Amino acid sequence: MIARIAARIGRVFEELTVRPIALYGSAVLRIGYGLAYLVFLVREFPNREELWGPRAAWSPTLERQYVASANWYGWVKSWYALLATTSDTRFELSYALALLICAAMALGWRTRATSIAFMLVVTTFTGRDVFLSDGSDNVLLLMSIYLVFTAGGRRLSLDARRLATRTASPRTPFNPALAELAEVRRRIVTLMHNAAILVIGFQMCVIYGAAALWKAQGSVWENGTAIYYVLHIDWFRVWPGLSDAVAGHPTVIAIVAYVTVFAQIGFPFAIFSKRLKYALLVLLLGMHLSIAVLLGIPVFSAAMIIGDSVFLPDAFWLAAGRIARQTASRLRTLRPRTPLPPVRTPAARHTLSRNDLLR
Amino acid sequence: MAGETSSRLPEPEHEPIDGPRPVRLSRWTRVLLGAAAGLIALVTAAQLAATLLAASPSNTLSRQYNAQLNWWVTPWLGQNWKLFGPDPQEENLTILVRVENASGAQSAWVDLTAIDYAAVLHDPMPSHANENELRLAWDAYENSKPGSATQNLLRRYLVNFAAERLGITVPGSYTAVQFESLTTPMPPPGTTAPQPPTNAYQPWWPLTTQNGSTQ
Q1: Paired strand residues for B184
Q2: By percentage, how much of chain B surpasses pLDDT 70?
């Protein structure tokens, strides 16, 4: 009995150190968050001085005094306030560098080093004035840290392309000790990746679960009028006509309020059911797209949609890529219809779900 | 790139990271791997627990381990997912400022929120400068402990913000700034009658140099 359990633990450990899960998923996260922050920084380019520059309202002096009073280690303080510079040149160079790093992140160029740099970009921009941060900054900040530990460059990246074109001659290790160390390194990297994917998935569940718990405490979420009030906050009235049109349907917004709370509280459980998971992901996608437009918070919505994609298995991305390529080539050549190559069968998916920590 | 041609066999979803394997591990390297795996498991477990505790409403556990939790999550791993919960705000804010010069002459009130609302209108991707800066600075100021160091910093933040929006160069001819906030309840659902606002004045605050060095 004990031997069986030990053997089983051994097998699970072997799996976790040998098979990286969701390689496409983590690549999609890397591309998504790299692009999201790139778009954010490009959009804020005209306002960069006002938000983070040497003469910003939250001045470098205020930032330093704020950080000085914090109960953090010295190195954390220096890192946190890294962008609080009084030099225009240094600020502009930092901004340009940040744009380049975000682009490199999306492209997957030297991914491990770039993802560390990306994390530095997001932490320093967020830390420069924490009072500017909304939910989008919070999600991006957390994800930029988690992504450092993933192997997001293995797929859909310049790194992957470079490795593929390199002559695939198996390197014969001249020294068995070195070969062993290389194997240990490989396994540690894989385990770290799998742990980071678990943390990312857990984080998404916590966001939805916590958002639902908070809402469930609110009287207007209970009586179904919460969305009416949200749509009347002047700071989020991007399309007042649209907001009023939606807010003018009490039944609709009451249903949407209840569906929102139930979808959010149900999500952490739904990921364990294949069918329910996809249904809820589609529902949440619709919710994010609606609030992106209605409330003018597209970066937050994008950050959540990208985060949700961690729950899509590699088989999904492979099938999606295959269908996209087929459609593209058919559109290009306008050939007569040819049957699609077989999309993964449930049996093939089964081998995947066995290893997938998130289901 | 992987799976470039559709004629190729479907690639296995999971594959060894790179290069041939397996390599048989000796005792030494197994110990090394075990230690690293233990560390990863520990950090992962701590992060999962901290995420859950920091995101939850204040509870017995999070209060008991408040110090450890803060050590782990500040400044970068904080969690705030209220997202219009428990109750979204049921009133709108109008924030006005006026300035005073050395001889005591006062300017007319300028509506700072109107600038934000106008900028946000019909912008599919509003800037943090208009959607967040004043909104969150004011919120943080209102919720800060009266007389605390943080409140002092936030007051100077608001002063700098007002000067920036008014296009005032500091130090210049203006010496002080005053904020007034009007809180207007939204008309309850189904009604349209405008509700009377309540207002509050802040004391006159000195307009100091941009980084507040004279204070």
Answers
A1: B92
A2: 86
Note whether A132 and B128 are within 8 A (CB). Answer: yes
pTM comes to 0.90
- What pLDDT does B170 receive? 73
Length of chain A: 359
Place of tokens 């069986």: A4
Residue A109 corresponds to which amino acid?
W
Q: Is B13 within 8 Å of A239 when comparing Cβ atoms?
A: no
Q: How far apart are CA A28 and CA B172, in angstroms?
A: 52
Chain A residue whose CA is closest to B141: A131
What ipTM was reported for this prediction? 0.89
Yes or no: say if A64 and A141 are a contact pair by the CB < 8 Å rule. Answer: no
Give the nearest partner residue to B85 out of A170, A206, A215, using CB atoms.
A215
How far apart are alpha carbons B128 and A131 in whole angstroms?
Answer: 10
Give the burial string for B34-53 (b: 16+ CB within 10 Å, else e): eebbeebeeebeebbebbbb
The count of other CB atoms within 10 Å of the CB of residue A336 is 6
Return the closest-CA partner of residue A133 out of B162, B154, B128: B128
CA distance linking residue A9 with residue A24, whole number of Å: 26
CB of B111 within 8 A of CB of B96? yes
- Helix/strand/coil for A236: helix
Q: How large is the greatest C-alpha to C-alpha distance in chain A, in angstroms? A: 74
CA-nearest of B134, B141, B120, B200 to B165 is: B134
Backbone angles phi, psi at B4, to 5 degrees: -65, -45
The identity of residue A337, as a single letter, is R
DSSP class of residue B205? E
Identity of the residue in B16, B20, B84 whose CB atom sits nearest the CB atom of A226? B84
Three-class SS state of B11: coil
pLDDT value of position B57: 85
What does residue A271 show for φ and ψ, rounded to 5 degrees?
-65, -15
Q: Between chains, do A183 and B136 touch, taking CB under 8 Å as contact? A: no
In the chain, the amino acid numbered A245 is: A
Query: Cβ–Cβ contacts within 10 Å for residue A36, how many?
Result: 24
The C-alpha atoms of residue B142 and residue B162 are separated, in whole angstroms, by 16
Residue given tokens 């994917």 in the structure block: A197
- Which band of pLDDT confidence, cut at 50, 70 and 90, is reported for residue B25? confident
